[in-house]
Design goal:
eight-stranded antiparallel β-barrel; alpha+beta; 7 helices; 30% strand; 252 residues
């Protein structure tokens, strides 16, 4: 009968709904690259100094940076020479966001830090900026073979998609430079907070002139040219800064 038919349909429909609900939900990751396996991150800070106070800021920082490094680890501190005027760039390492929060809270209660440094330094700045980054999975911090020299911070704005899309090509481009002895990579980082889909390579050279000579030579190397061309297919834009390490910088 029509009633029995409707009852059978209703029963089958209910069974179907129950079977759908009981199926395991497929797992999907929003990340398209290797998952971060630990909490360590690196905060990039850029301070823009009022031009007439640049020397005074660097002198004060040199004298009082120990008040800041008593709270957390400084990786490096540089003065920008080319690619930006009256700027300093520094990298701080943290084991977790909780650690950074506790460091910031401790600094806010540190009278020596406030009275001897921060109250004097802040009026010398025109602005500040920061970004949170992670090392890419195939990179680690590697100090230069010797002190001195110059550092280049190269920033690459990549197409969206993450390391699963451009990671292999980018690693090959970096690898052809380091593997051929053209440059020393201090570290390769990708952005977590700030402008997303950015990769940063911190290079070390013996001098600005050595960098210029190496670029001329490497651009005639077929291996470098091929790797860079493949990586460039995923590139939106890029920029760089040439920096000099401050005397108190751990990496210099």
């Amino acid at each position: 009968s029509g009633c029995q038919s409707r009852c059978r349909y209703t029963s089958r429909h209910a069974e179907h709904c129950l079977s759908v609900k009981s199926r395991p939900t497929p797992r999907a990751w929003i990340s398209t690259g290797p998952q971060q396996q630990h909490g360590t991150f690196y905060e990039f800070r850029t301070y823009y100094i009022q031009p007439h106070l640049n020397a005074a800021f660097l002198k004060l920082t040199n004298e009082k940076i120990h008040l800041r490094t008593a709270h957390s680890e400084l990786i490096g501190y540089w003065s920008v020479e080319y690619g930006g005027l009256n700027q300093v760039f520094h990298i701080w390492k943290y084991d977790s966001y909780a650690q950074r929060a506790s460091v910031r809270a401790a600094l806010a209660q540190d009278p020596n830090w406030i009275e001897q440094y921060i109250s004097k330094a802040m009026p010398m700045l025109s602005s500040q900026d920061n970004e949170v980054t992670y090392l890419v999975p195939w990179s680690k911090i590697q100090k230069p073979p010797k002190d001195g020299g110059v550092f280049e911070l190269a920033t690459f704005q990549m197409k969206p998609g993450g390391p699963a899309v451009w990671g292999r090509a980018f690693q090959a481009a970096v690898g052809t430079h380091t593997g051929s002895g053209y440059a020393h990579a201090v570290g390769v980082f990708h952005s977590e907070f700030g402008q997303l889909n950015q990769v940063f390579v911190l290079w070390w050279f013996e001098s600005a002139d050595q960098r210029a000579a190496i670029r001329h030579t490497s651009h005639e190397d077929a291996r470098v040219v091929a790797a860079v061309r493949e990586s460039a297919a995923y590139l939106v834009s890029h920029k760089n800064k040439l920096m000099l390490p401050c005397a108190f910088s751990p990496i210099k």
